[in-house]
Amino acid sequence: MTPVEARAAVEAAYRTEKRRVLATLIRLLGGFEAAEEALHDAFVAASDRWPREGVPANPYAWLVSAGRFKTIDRWRRQARLVGVLPDLALITDPLVEPVAPESVQDDELRLIFICCHPALTPDARIALTLREVGGLTTEEIARAYLAPTPTIAQRIVRAKAKIRDEAIPYEVPPPAEFPARLDSALRAIYLIFNEGYAATSGPSLTRTDLSAEAIRLGRLVVELLDDCEAKGLLALMLLHEARRTTRVDAVGDLVLLEHQDRSQWDRARIAEARELIDHAMAMRRIGPYLLQATIAALHADAPSYAATDWPQIAALYRMLLRIDPSPVIALNHAVALGMRDGPEAGLAAVDAVLGQGKLDRYHLAHAAKADMLRRLGHDEPARACYQTALELTQQPAERRFLLSRLAQLATPTAS
Questions:
Q1: What does the radius of gyration of the chain's CA atoms come to, in whole angstroms?
Q2: Strand partners, 248
Q3: How far separated are the first and last CA of the chain, in Å rounded?
Q4: Which residues, including other chains, have CB under 8 Å from residue 316's CB and lie 6 or more apart?
Q5: pLDDT (tens digit, 9 = 90+) per residue, 34-67?
Q6: Does 412 score more than 60 pLDDT?
Q7: At 248, phi and psi to the nearest 5?
Q8: Max Cα separation, the chain?
Q9: In the predicted model, is pLDDT for residue 171 greater than 90?
Q10: Long-range contact pairs involving 117-121 (C-beta distance under 8 Å, separation at least 24)
Q11: 351-382 as b/e, with b when 16 or more CB fall inside 10 Å?
């Protein structure tokens, strides 16, 4: 194996296995700091040994074992190994995938339930899960929360300290305790999916690894719990994923929903989502994810953008606002009103949302206002809003789209 091939193999393993390896190391080593250091040691070892020995048949198990043994060696040198080694004997064979002893057999799903411990505040639970399970950077989490990066960093540090100081066990809760952690777990999975579906940074608009991982975790939750919201979330993710390939063109530029080739949407995923929605509806407990999935299904079922059932979508968003009154849902409702009643009504609704001050730094809110203004022929105000949106996003595909909108508007009159 050439050095270039070995480096590519290590980089590929880092992209595909990092989160799973870290989750297993956290379980085995009993703490975030030790696991994060072990993860680093494992990939350093891979960079050194894979060029000479070749890529192992099971990179995940190899990396877990390498990280584990590096940690054991370090603890031995520090004379702190007593009582630890027996607990780590689970994975002595580097080519045998570790098997969890508890009922939840997936380390990442287990870690989600640990990060969502009721002793942590709801915001801290989700931020910690996104960092440790999703592998998102603090900056990416801050953008998902529409919050300052230092605020998110403090939440994560405090959550880890609380787990350490209160000796919160790294174990799966009994099934009776799952519901208390479910809301935070579902939200974290959805935010991981969102970062994969519409990446806030990086060269590509999407990150397929994150979306695929979120859907995998969503399936595990549905298998674990017969919950309507878990089914609604999985359906919602599948419906969005069904049109992933049509969201960008051949050069990676953004394609709006109205211009996407619906014949290329994944009908198998849409059918699976529809079945999940039907099962969840039969449970007669409607929550935010199930409503959002129903809205997404209306988009998927429409033969064209013009034929979309906007009155029904607007009504569903109004219902969603009653049970989940978030500013982003209010923005989506405003956009739906603009499609149902025209851009003037949409502009008034978007202005009302922006007037609350919670979406001042959210580029999509300013882009939505710009679009209403553009449709009304108010080019100069539209230009200003597009410019604001451009300044608030670093995503290259979104920036190119906003620049194209600016170029389409009339050149401002010279004063």
A1: 24
A2: 254
A3: 66
A4: 291, 294, 295, 298
A5: 899 999 999 999 999 998 888 899 999 999 999 9
A6: no
A7: -135, 155
A8: 79
A9: no
A10: 117/163, 117/168, 117/181, 118/180, 118/181, 119/162, 119/166, 119/168, 120/159, 120/162, 120/163, 121/155
A11: eebbeeebbeebbbbbbbbbbbbbeeebbeeb
Q: Do 192 and 210 meet the contact criterion of CB atoms below 8 Å apart? A: yes
pLDDT of residue 411: 60
Q: Is 215 exposed, middle or buried (0-12, 13-18, 19+ CB in 10 A)?
A: buried
Q: According to DSSP H, which parts of 30-58 are helical?
A: 32-53
Residues 185 and 158: their CA atoms lie apart, in Å, by 19
| Spatial separation of the C-alpha atoms in residues 104 and 98, rounded to whole Å | 13
What letter would DSSP give residue 306? T
pLDDT tens column, 254-264: 999 999 999 99
What does the CA dihedral 57, 60, 66, 70 come to, rounded to 10 degrees?
A: 180
Give the pLDDT of residue 37: 92
pLDDT in tens, 304-363: 998 999 999 999 999 999 999 999 999 999 999 999 999 999 999 999 999 999 999 999
Q: What backbone phi and psi angles, to 5 degrees, belong to 254?
A: -65, 135
Q: Bigger pLDDT: 409 or 75?
A: 409
Token pair 């025209």 in the structure block, residue: 342
Identity of the residue numbered 282:
A
| Alpha carbons 403 and 397: distance in angstroms, whole number | 10
DSSP 340-367: HH-HHHHHHHHHHHHTTSTTTT-HHHHH
> Where are any strands of DSSP class E within 164-300?
none
Owner of token pair 């969201």: 247
Burial track 255-271 (b if 16+ CB lie within 10 A, e otherwise): beeeebeeeebbeebbe
Question: Over the chain, what is the mean pLDDT?
Answer: 87
If you ran DSSP here, which 8-state letter would residue 254 be given?
B
- pLDDT level of residue 93 (50, 70, 90 thresholds): very low
Kindly list the distances between the CA atom of residue 35 and the CA atoms of 24, 130, 170, 368, in Å, as whole numbers in the listed order. Answer: 8, 16, 12, 43
> Residue length, the chain?
415
How far is it, in rounded angstroms, from Cα 389 to Cα 379? Answer: 15
Distance CA 82, CA 86 (A): 9
Structure confidence at residue 105 as a pLDDT band (50, 70, 90) = low
**Has this prediction a pTM greater than 0.85?**
no
